[in-house]
Amino acid sequence: MPRGYGQLGCSGFIISDKDGCFVSRQTSAYLDYGEGAFRQVERILKDLVPKSASAKRLKREESKTEEDSQASKKGKEENLTRRVELPPSVGVNSMDDEHKECTDSFNKAFESPSVGNLRDLYNILKSHFDHEEKLMLEFSDDDSDGEFSALYSHKMDHERMLKIAQNELDRLKCTGSK
Prior knowledge:
Oligomer: single chain
Distance between the termini: 49 Å
């Protein structure tokens, strides 16, 4: 692994300095903190950038971060225009088809929020995640099944997403929403 960073998936990043010493064993998870998780990584990496880096480059990055922050706030305020984009092909037709189905279901839930659409989304995600984990287990070169394996990290991301959806379904059920 290159020195300076390592990915744990949507659960955050591990970051090391140029000598391979850990600076952060796990940053905030994107699924829990959204764009704020990336801002945390950027702050950590900014401190690791050699002091000889040009001030102009740093200023441009800070300006971009501020623009991203303002765009994120605007996006939250204009939630009605929220859409999920289809991810790039993973080279497996069945997975690409499922990713399209998941994307379409997310967008349907955003466009027409209802318990039924959220329940449909949950079921589609659950089915997709089960299939994806089965394929990862079957075709992975990683013999590790420990908590730092790619499969384990991916499963934890899946569980977290399903828990978010289930908690919302439970909340809506308690309020009597349709």
